[in-house]
């Protein structure tokens, strides 16, 4: 007959086997009871069955690990590098010019391995033009068939072809910018490699299809397409799945654009260990840019991927779960669902939360912020024709919300601190034109003002707001676009150095002061390409996605330095404004017409160097400036002083890259 102590020991082994079967060896429960609870209790098989049933329906386990629990150990192993395929990197494919008949490409391809070409995967060749129809450093959009257009490029004497539309919002790439070995989108600055079609800078997620290009003896340019690429205009890079023999565990914290890119890039780069993706919101990652621009969008239309995608590639998505404490000495992350997870490497991109200033009445019902999809949902539930809306703040969030709502409610009033909106970002001249645009569209603009009190009724709902001049405005819905705070409290006392404002300093490879802990997105205080010598914290959507890619590359054993130029965009009453660069300025030089919203603005600093460029209705000039900075070049006042040809500087894009000693 078994002794009681032996029975208890046997049960403890069975119990922890159940835990490891359910949640995996990297996860243990938060510790609320001690092991004496086991030592003083008698357990039977029914108890074990009850535990198994209850565990399945419970999100938390309040049991402490014991010597009988197989504790997960970090491996300390470097990421195994997957063998590169011919002509491309892990996760990519190459379908460029064939070395057989294209005389123009033979010399360049002799320097490296020829791309693998399997005729079974491709269509028959289609003649798209004559080789003499395209010049050096030229891009042409051509018809491949009735439904498919391609972008044909000639650079360094070589012909290459990729998809014709940006995978982000479908911009025609032939109107974009040709860089050295890549093409940049004219609208929002996404970049694609000409050799592989892979996305290298953002926004967006997917890559371009590539095409096989040949030139026959008659000088015809013949193009073949991969049959599967004809089905759609974008391509998902090859991704690996989890290998049960790979004992590593990587965690990505933050379900925004940065985390979404990171988890995909990890799988694209060959990481086959366990991958946990922690998302504080109840939704899968989505296009956050659209939350304030189109608050009526349904979640399915703005999500990056569906649940089946993450399941297919063994990405464990923990929705409605937040990180609560990071312990880098133990390589552990505590989560709001009660789990403590051991990690080998971790990427943290927890972003920001909207900030409500401490104005009396700020806690009343119908006082809203716009940051997340749930915020937009709660606002749209209140929208009706007789609603009176006040937007506090005159920067992007408040203005985009006002622009969206004004045609759906009785009135919209914007209350701003400066004399014109967007003054800090664009300067006074552009701000004055934006002010006029809003007034033309029936938005009341109360500038050089603020709200001192929010007045509610007996039901706790806002009915009025009092301004700094003590006047009162009727208000049924108050939207605060008043800044944000960094979501980094859980990193306090973790070993990671957190700055006083909540941001985190990172290296040029996005690693913190603690090895194996990477930080990116809004919370990262990082270097950028351009004139800023110090680290900066920039909350741009494009930069956040780029950080996710760079972090993943470095986590998987590559050595990839940050080389991004900040690029952002807004849409106000149908006027799209782009902006690239970063830095202080003393003067704004306007080229074009502010009145017609067809202009380029050059922001010039005290050293007569252009730190940033903005435009409206003048694509692709902002993308051109972004590409110029990414090539390590700069733009000076002397290059834009000639009013008759202020864009002569764009010729610099075709010149060789500067040599770096």
UniProtKB/TrEMBL annotation:
Domain Rieske: 126-222
Claim: Repeat is one of the keywords in the record: no
Pfam families assigned: Pyr_redox_2, Rieske
One Gene Ontology term, aspect cellular component: cytoplasm
SUPFAM superfamilies for the chain: FAD/NAD(P)-binding domain (SSF51905), FAD/NAD-linked reductases, dimerisation (C-terminal) domain (SSF55424), ISP domain (SSF50022)
Chain intervals for the UniProt region annotation (Disordered): 78-100
Family designation: Belongs to the FAD-dependent oxidoreductase family.
The protein, known as: Apoptosis-inducing factor 3 isoform X3
Species for this entry: Drosophila lebanonensis (Fruit fly)
Lineage start: Eukaryota, Metazoa, Ecdysozoa, Arthropoda, Hexapoda
Gene: LOC115633224
């Amino acid at each position: 007959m078994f002794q009681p102590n032996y029975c208890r020991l046997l049960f403890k082994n069975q119990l922890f086997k159940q835990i490891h079967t359910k949640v995996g060896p990297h996860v243990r429960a938060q510790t609320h009871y001690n092991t004496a609870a086991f030592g003083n209790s008698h357990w039977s098989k029914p108890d074990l069955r009850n535990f198994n049933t209850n565990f399945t329906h419970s999100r938390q386990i309040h049991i402490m690990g014991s010597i009988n629990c197989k504790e997960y150990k970090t491996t300390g192993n470097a990421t195994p590098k997957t063998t590169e395929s011919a002509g491309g990197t892990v996760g990519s494919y190459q379908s460029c010019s064939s070395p057989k008949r294209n005389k123009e490409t033979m010399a360049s391809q002799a320097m490296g391995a020829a791309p693998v070409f399997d005729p079974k995967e491709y269509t028959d060749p289609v003649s798209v033009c004559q080789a003499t129809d395209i010049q050096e450093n030229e891009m042409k959009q051509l018809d491949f068939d009735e439904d498919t257009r391609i972008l044909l490029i000639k650079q360094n004497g070589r012909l290459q072809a990729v998809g014709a539309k940006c995978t982000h919002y479908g911009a025609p790439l032939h109107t974009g910018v040709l860089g050295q070995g890549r093409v940049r989108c004219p609208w929002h600055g996404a970049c694609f490699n000409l050799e592989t079609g892979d996305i290298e800078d953002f926004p967006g997620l997917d890559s371009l299809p590539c095409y096989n290009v040949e030139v026959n003896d008659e000088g015809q340019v013949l193009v073949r397409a991969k049959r599967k690429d004809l089905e759609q205009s974008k391509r998902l890079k090859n991704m690996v799945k989890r290998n049960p023999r790979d004992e590593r565990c990587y965690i990505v914290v933050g379900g925004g654009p940065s985390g979404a890119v990171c988890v995909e890039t990890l799988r694209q780069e060959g990481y086959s260990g366990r991958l946990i993706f922690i998302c504080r919101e109840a939704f899968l990652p989505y296009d956050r840019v659209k939350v304030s621009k189109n608050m009526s969008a349904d979640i399915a239309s703005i999500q990056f991927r569906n649940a089946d995608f993450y399941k297919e590639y063994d990405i464990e998505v923990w929705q409605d779960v937040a990180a609560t404490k990071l312990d880098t000495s133990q390589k552990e992350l505590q989560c709001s669902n009660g789990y403590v997870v051991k990690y080998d490497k971790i990427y943290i991109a927890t972003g920001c939360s909207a900030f409500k200033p401490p104005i009396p009445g700020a806690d009343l019902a119908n006082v809203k912020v716009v940051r997340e999809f749930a915020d937009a949902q709660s606002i749209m539930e209140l929208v009706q024709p007789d609603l009176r809306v006040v937007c506090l703040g005159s920067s992007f969030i408040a203005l985009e919300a006002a622009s969206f709502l004004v045609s759906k409610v009785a009135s919209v009033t914007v209350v701003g601190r400066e004399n014109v909106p967007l003054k800090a970002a664009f300067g006074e001249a552009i701000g004055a034109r934006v002010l006029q645009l809003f007034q033309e569209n029936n938005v009341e603009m109360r500038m050089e003002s603020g709200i001192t009190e929010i007045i509610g009724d007996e039901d706790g709902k806002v009915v009025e707001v009092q301004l700094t001049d003590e006047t009162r405005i009727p208000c049924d819905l108050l939207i605060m676009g008043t800044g944000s705070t960094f979501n980094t409290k859980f990193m306090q006392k973790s070993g990671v150095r957190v700055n006083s404002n909540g941001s985190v300093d990172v290296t040029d490879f996005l690693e913190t002061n603690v090895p194996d802990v990477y930080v990116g997105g809004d919370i990262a205080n990082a270097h950028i390409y351009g004139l800023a010598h110090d680290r900066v914290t920039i909350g741009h959507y494009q930069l956040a996605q780029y950080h996710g890619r760079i972090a993943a590359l470095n986590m998987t054993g590559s050595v990839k330095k940050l080389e991004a130029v900040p690029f952002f965009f807004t849409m106000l009453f149908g006027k799209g404004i782009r902006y690239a660069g970063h830095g202080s300025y003393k003067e704004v030089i306007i080229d074009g017409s502010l009145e017609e919203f067809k202009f380029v603005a050059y922001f010039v600093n005290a050293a007569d160097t252009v730190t940033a460029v903005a435009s409206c209705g003048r694509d692709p000039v902002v993308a051109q400036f972004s590409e110029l900075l990414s090539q390590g070049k700069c733009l000076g006042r002397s290059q834009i002083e000639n009013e008759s040809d202020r864009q002569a500087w764009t010729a610099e894009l075709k010149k060789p890259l500067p040599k770096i000693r």
